[in-house]
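okkk here we go again. third time trying to get the pyridoxal-5'-phosphate bound version out, last two times i messed up the smiles copy paste (missing a bracket lol). double checked this time i swear
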Amino acid sequence: MSDHDEHSDADRRKAATRLVHHDYEAPKNFGGLNVGIHHASTVTFANVAAMRARDWKSDSGYTYGLHGTPTTFTLARRIASLEGGRYCVLVPSGLAAIALVDLALLKSGDRLLLPDNVYNPSRELATTLLSDFGIETHTYDPMDLESLSAAIDSRTRLIWIEAPGSVTMEVPDVPAIAVLAKRYGVLTAIDNTWAAGLLFRPFDHGIDIVMHALTKYPSGGSDVLMGSVTTRDPMLHQRLKAAHMRLGFGIGGDDCYLMLRGLATLELRLKRSGDTGLALAQWLAARPEVAAVLHPAYPDCPGHEFWKRDFAGAAGLFSIVLSGDISEEESDAMIDALRLFRIGYSWGGAHSLAVPYRVAVAGGTPRTVGGWPHRGVLVRFYAGMEDAGDLIADLGQAFDRLR
Ligand SMILES: *Cc1c(COP(=O)(O)O)cnc(C)c1O
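finally!!
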């Protein structure tokens, strides 16, 4: 949210330090380290003149609980700092963050470009509600910049990017997409959830808007839903902020508190999850039942070279494709046999997870444009905080059932 001097000492510190040391001041004579939880719908003014003087659209003061409290403003500032941006608005989920960007920036007659590996609810929003509002969506192949370039026309207003893509994990050439979009005057928005704000710096590569499902790694507890939309440009922030106010997206103080508490350990948890993910991927890659490991750190993952060039490391979310002769029933039985890995979608917490994606069952394809080279069942894994050896032993006993 609010401005802060880009060149202050605090901003030169590493993200891990900034997540622990921040500008919150506890009430006098109280030495607690964490931000207070403020609950408010009503926010009062000293007198009518003060009420009239308040600019509702400015982040510099308080008007109404829906538009910010000391707790929500503190979290927004810290997310902006995490992402390397200057302004941030918070919304009740990651999907709400995607919806906010779309609704703030698109109108009837506009064209939206989505990558083929987009988070699927984003595609659902585009093909239902946005379509009803007269907004046209075109799907592009994130690994084919020529097709993206050809898809940009005079009505194109927004290009969404995911790096890596949901489920299938391709890493696009983000700086090249940003250059292309700028040439045509089209805004770019990226879903930075996988990289958790720590492994990838989209603003440094020319991206305009960074969206993050804070539900995942920042929360880390599998118990809070929240999303953020971060920007560097004040005019763009004002458009997003105005839409945010008009749509009435509010977030609760308790959820903010849990998120703030999670942030202090974000880097440690991400490192643990990423390292364990690499250990699991290595074990899986050596198994004859596994046809492909879709992990950005693996050379056969499309865009591996861009990941190596642009990312600071690996998160713990990746997928595999089982060999084509393993049926969906056999794959389901293997997943059911896992004891430590739980079956569930929302990752980023302490528990390791496995989710099968039907879309990639032999004959099907997760692609609507371009080709899909695999035949087998796709399984997405999330590496949690358990011991890596225990997780590998769990995979071992479950994979034994595939024989
Ligand atoms: C989970 C997720 C979202 C949506 O977040 P919610 O808070 O569950 O709505 C968006 N994008 C990606 C990549 C995600 O993993």
